[in-house]
Amino acid sequence: MTYKTRLGLRGLLAAGAIAVTTAMPFKAQAETTYNLALLSDFSGPYADIMPILAGGREAVFTWWNETRGKELGVRLNYKNYETRYDAAQVASLWPGIKSELDPIAVVGLGGPDVAALSERLPEDKIPMFMATAAYGYAWQSDAWIFNPRPTYSHESAGFLAWLKEKRGGDEPLKFAVMASEASPAYVDMAKGLELYAEENPEELDLVEVIYTEVQPTDLTTQMRRVARAGAEALIIQTNTSIVVAAKRGLQANGADIPIMMSSHNGLPASGGALGGLEQLEGDYEAYGMAVAADEDTPSRQFYETLVSDHGLDAPWNVVTAMGISQGLYTVAVIGHAIEENGAEGLTGEKVREALFAGPITTEETHGFLPTLTFTPEAPFPLKGLKVNVGTVKNGKISIEATGVDVPDVHKW
Amino acid sequence: MVYFINDIITGALIGLLYSLVAMGFVVIYRASKVFNFAQGELVIIGGFIVWYTTMEVELSLWLSIPLSLVLAGIVGYLIERIFLTKLIGESVFSMVMVTVGLLILLRGVVLLLFGPAVRPFPIIFPLKPLFLGDMLIPMNLLIGGIITIVAAVGLSWFFNRTRSGLRMTAVAEDHVVASSMGISVKGSIAFAWVLGAILSTIGAMIFLSGKSLTFLASDIGFAALPVALFAGLESIGGLILAGVIIGIAQSLTTNYLDPLIGGSLGSVVPYIIMLAILLIRPTGLFGWRAIERV
Predict the structure, then answer these.
(1) For residue range B121-153, what is the model confidence (pLDDT) as tens digits?
(2) Residues 6 or more apart in contact with residue A401 via CB below 8 angstroms
(3) Which of B10, B210, B216 faces A215 most closely, judged by CB atoms?
(4) Distance between CA atoms of residues B110 and B198, nearest Å
(5) Searching chain A, which residue's CA lies closest to the CA of residue B15?
């Protein structure tokens, strides 16, 4: 090879290298980037579950960027903001979040986020997507904060309807509710179900709503009253300490009344606080989301994919499932908004419009959530509501029922 | 009728549990004239010590209980040494404000060390209740009630009949005068905090036996507050009567009025009783009436 040829080859190589390096930024520019603000509590009351919940939702965003996002030419960046589950902290962080990220959506955690941002988000035209069930007091039209699950009262009403059908017979199902005035949310859960039972006496017979402290001293006499009234179920959607005290009260009375818990105080959490899942044999958890049981379900398979291919490092439990489902319906809505408006110029307002434009199918959320049809009338879907029921069988959590219809619960 | 009597008995026993926690308030108050707002936090510190020695270190109850009481005493001593000893001779108000700070600090320390997770508390007293015909009495509350009465009798004797107890009372009257009489003010206050922490740990064991433990358990400090103020902050014996009255009133309200009104009047009743008695007798039922010469 002559010197000239070598020089020519070098020149060609250099030109090629320049062409490649010049082309790279163009490729990056072709991918439109949008930001999501993730509100988290790594140092407050939910510090113990936050890494798992955050792991679930972040893994979904990674998965979406590597799959659907690539097809659409969009990348979702996200940043966690530490709120310490404190409304004042959320309120003080919000102006900074907005100017730093200009997010198209907020991924919220709980009540303090709602309290701090419910007035701000409509003004700023940024929607917030939550993971939990909704509350009656937040049941308002034209919302900017959305829940994939209906209210806790809807979920318990669905469970009771299922339990009545399972029991058989025409007599109304007798049940009791544990509540606490320590939190407006706990009162709200009871009030909604109370009204539903009042309006449907042929279906349900509410024997008593028992108000107690968040860490009850003793519930033995209260549980005796519930047992004497012939209750067939005890609804506890408050916290694990009340589940534990009620269970001890039932055990002391030799009463075998099944308890229904929610996702945040469900079978794994309450079983742990009781010293073993086997203590909750025959009790239930019910919510409008996939039950994290051992069975091979589409949601379980998707979780496995996130673990093997997208770096998810979290156990298969209800908290991880909550994080994944929150991430999934958020990216589904954003995906719809991009399909409708194109990859460029997406705003929070367009994302919210996309939420109302069409349903988010259960396939899109890999079975984590039922098909969700949002309307401007409520911050959660009002039609096609379903709950799943989990139970403890032989010391293990298993799925008892899926896709249980939720009855019409009127606003209270 | 049987159930009504049962509700009265259970209420009285819950009231005695409040009395035991309130005893911590009174012991510290009698020795230092300081109202310890962090009493509920001492209960959870005690609870976490018991939980740690039993569930984490896996000691048998026979070992973990005395060890926990010793450790709780050390914590009480350290709290006094670090935060309060330097305030001796300063206004009572500053010391009270320190206990408010302690409330926040101890809650933070518990969250930092143990996290917010709900944990199973060891079963210290039998879960099976005592059946008396149709009546059912929770064993933890029954044994707890006996412990409370024994502790009240013992502490009353100590404060009223022993030299050390009377010295502590003198310290509460006036730090400077007590000191000039050769009484160790620091020693008396430190001993009161040790005793307060131990009583709180016993209270935690009765309250939480077989249940769950979180920092929410500190709320029992607020439940015990009406008992302490109702009895009068200097009277240990009076705590028993005050606890029983408040416990029964609360139990009857919770079991018979709450279901009718659909609310939680039971948790408010102790405070209503407390306010009513304070209006009639500001020093509480058995509190000392100070006569001041002007």
Answers:
(1) 999 999 889 988 888 899 999 999 999 999 999
(2) A162, A388, A389
(3) B216
(4) 17
(5) A217
Which residue out of A183, A209, A212, A217 would a mutagenesis test of the B interface target, given it has the greatest number of B Cβ atoms within 10 Å?
Answer: A217
Q: What is the pLDDT of residues B38-62, one digit of tens each?
A: 999 999 999 999 999 999 999 999 9
- Could you tell me what percent of chain A has a pLDDT over 70? 92
Name the residue ranges covered by the structural domains of chain A. Answer: 31-150+296-381, 152-287+389-405
ipTM of model: 0.85
Task: Answer for the pair A215, B17: CB distance below 8 angstroms, yes or no.
Answer: no
The CATH architecture annotation of domain A31-150+296-381 reads 3-Layer(aba) Sandwich (3.40)
What is the fold, at CATH topology level, of the domain defined by A152-287+389-405? Rossmann fold (3.40.50)
Q: How confident is the model at residue A31 (pLDDT cuts 50, 70, 90)?
A: confident
Closest Cβ opposite residue A218 in set B10, B118, B216:
B10
Note whether A278 contacts B: Cβ–Cβ < 8 A: no
Query: Which candidate from B14, B117, B255 shows the least CB-CB separation from A48?
Result: B117
- Is there a shared CATH topology between the A31-150+296-381 domain and the A152-287+389-405 domain? yes
B274: which 2 tokens? 């407390």
Residue A18 has pLDDT above 50, yes or no: no
A129's enclosing H/E stretch is: strand A128-129
Closest CA to B77 of B176, B188, B154: B188
Question: CA B151, CA B24: separation in Å to the nearest integer?
Answer: 11
For residue range A148-189, list pLDDT tens digits in order.
Answer: 999 999 999 999 999 999 999 999 999 999 998 887 888 899
Residues of A in contact with B136 (CB under 8 A): 220-221, 224, 252-253
Residues of B in contact with A192 (CB under 8 A): none
